[in-house]
Each structure stands twice: as structure tokens, then as C-alpha cells.
Design goal:
Elements: E1 6-11, H1 16-25, H2 27-30, E2 34-37, H3 39-55, E3 63-66, H4 74-83, E4 89-93, H5 103-115, E5 120-121, H6 124-131
Parallel strand pairs: 1-2, 1-4, 2-3, 4-5
Helix pairs in contact: 1-3, 4-5
Length: 156
């Protein structure tokens, strides 16, 4: 089970209900990890987890850090955490049906996750698969990506 990791949670407006449902579904797995969220998503996640804690008499609070909202730089703040190795998993529920004024920040965050080999889930199915992976409970060390020029002539 995933434990003592930092999980970034980001959801566009039209995907926030999906994120809250996903958090409720995975609340026991999320407990014991640090969550970092963009602004509004963070407030919704925090309220959801507070309700859960009250209902289940949990005294130790969930660890949540709220960044700025996405359009105000929250995506960039989380990308900076990815670059310095402080994010282990990113769940980013993107609204692919609407234009986003901060598209450059979204692409930059996704790019940094790819460059630094951070698993990133953009839908609930992949998020569920990633968060329940048995690799989290093992001494698994992801490989460092190598960027080399591909020599087509050497491939037979």
C-alpha cells in the first residue's frame, strides 16, 4: 500500500466532482500520505477528509498543502515540487472538453512529470491502478530516464 508519499491532486472545474468521489473511494489509502493540491481542489479535498475524519473519529489530521489555484500558478508550484523530487504521484483530472487559459502551465506540469519519471494519472481508472500498485510497498526504485540520440542505422 502507498504510504509516506506526496501525492499531488489537481482537478479542473468540470472534473472536481470526480476528484472528490475518487478521494472518498480511496480515503483509507490516502491517509498516511501527504497531499498537495491546487487551491480550490485542495479546499474541497480538505473538507471531504475532515468529514471523513469526524465520521470515523480520527484525531490525527490529514496532511494537506494547498497551493494557488491552477490559473494563478498552482500547476507551476506543483511542477516545481516535481522537479526537486518532492512529488511521488500526480493525479490530474483534466477537463479535455474546455479551453484552459493556463494551458502552458498544464503542459509544463505534465512534461515535468514525464521528465522526472513521476507517475501521472489523468483519469480515475489510471489513478486507481497507480494508487493500488503493489510496487508502492516494495523497495522499488524507478529508473532514471536516459535521453540519448536514437541511431536509426544501428537498428537491424
Amino acid at each position: 500500500m502507498i504510504k509516506d508519499k506526496t501525492i499531488a491532486l489537481i482537478a479542473h472545474d468540470m472534473r472536481k466532482a470526480d476528484m472528490i468521489e475518487w478521494v472518498r473511494h480511496n480515503v483509507e489509502t490516502l491517509y498516511g500520505n501527504k497531499l498537495v493540491c491546487t487551491g480550490t481542489t485542495g479546499s474541497l479535498v480538505e473538507n471531504t477528509l475532515k468529514e471523513y475524519a469526524e465520521e470515523n473519529n480520527i484525531r490525527e489530521p490529514f496532511r494537506i498543502t494547498k497551493m494557488k489555484s491552477g490559473p494563478m500558478g498552482g500547476d507551476a508550484q506543483i511542477a516545481a515540487l516535481v522537479v526537486v523530487g518532492k512529488v511521488h504521484l500526480c493525479v490530474f483530472l483534466i477537463d479535455d472538453l474546455s479551453a484552459n487559459p493556463h494551458e502552458a502551465d498544464i503542459m509544463m506540469l505534465l512534461r515535468q512529470c514525464r521528465i522526472h519519471n513521476i507517475p501521472v494519472a489523468c483519469n480515475r481508472h489510471s489513478a486507481d491502478l497507480m494508487i493500488t500498485s503493489t510496487l508502492w510497498s516494495k523497495d522499488y526504485k524507478p529508473t532514471t530516464p536516459t535521453y540519448k540520440k536514437f541511431e536509426r542505422d544501428k537498428v537491424s
